[in-house]
Amino acid sequence: MATTPGETRATTTAPHSIRLPGIVLGVGLGGFVDGILLHQLLQWHHMLTSTNQDRIGVKYYNPDTVSGLEMNTVWDGIFHAVCWVAVLLGLALLYSRVTRNRRAVWTSRVLWGWILAGWGLFNLVEGVLDHHVLGIHHVYAGPDQAWWDAGFLLLGALFLAGGHLLQRAGQPFDPDAPHGASRGAGRAGDHA
């Protein structure tokens, strides 16, 4: 059966791609891990804990004082709100693109690969911007902070590379296929 150029283009553009939703979810979830683990549980830093040595002139809010901790907590809350919006946006994108077989997409190596890549992208962008360019906080401030910041970037690069490899190992996910038909050998995915 012959196809027109328009039909060929429509099938190669992958309108139901889960790349963008996965990356956006990964950015939001990676931000949550950063904020919950490093800001709240370990209390290694808050959003503005290094503004006494920053590169943009933000007022210093000493986290060892009540008023300083309050201001850092406000900025941590803003950071978490942005992460929350990213997760909601990622879910909205995913559910707008996958209208059938939604359970199958959650078992997709491709989706989880893109989420891991998004987390790595978060680490790289946040690490370069906040730790190096702006200098508003560091992973763990002190004499070895450059090593901690470099390790954070290295972890981001490993997540990005690992996510890329994981999504490539997944099988194509067709949200319009009958239930179970796109799962292949127990995996569902979408290379786009």
Can you give a write-up of this model?
This protein is mainly alpha-helical. Helix content is 61%, strand content 0%. α2 packs antiparallel against α3 and α2 (19-41) packs across α5. The radius of gyration is 20 Å and the shape is elongated. The two termini are 25 Å apart. Residues 7-15 and 182-191 have low confidence and may be disordered.
What's the alpha carbon Rg, rounded to whole Å?
Answer: 20 Å
Number of strands: 0
* Rounded mean pLDDT score: 87
Strand content: under 5%
Q: Work out the helix count.
A: 6
- Major beta sheet summary: none
Helical content class: 55-70%
- What gross morphology would you assign? elongated
- Sequence of secondary-structure elements: HHHHHH
- End-to-end Cα distance: 25 Å
* Structural class determined from secondary elements: mainly alpha
Unreliable stretches: 7-15, 182-191
Q: Indicate the multimeric state.
A: single chain
Question: Any key phrases for this structure?
Answer:
single chain; 192 residues; mainly alpha; elongated; disordered C terminus
Topology:
Blueprint: H1 5-12, H2 19-41, H3 66-97, H4 102-105, H5 109-133, H6 145-169
Give a brief outline of the structure:
Helices cover 61% and strands 0% of the residues. The chain contains six helices and no strands.
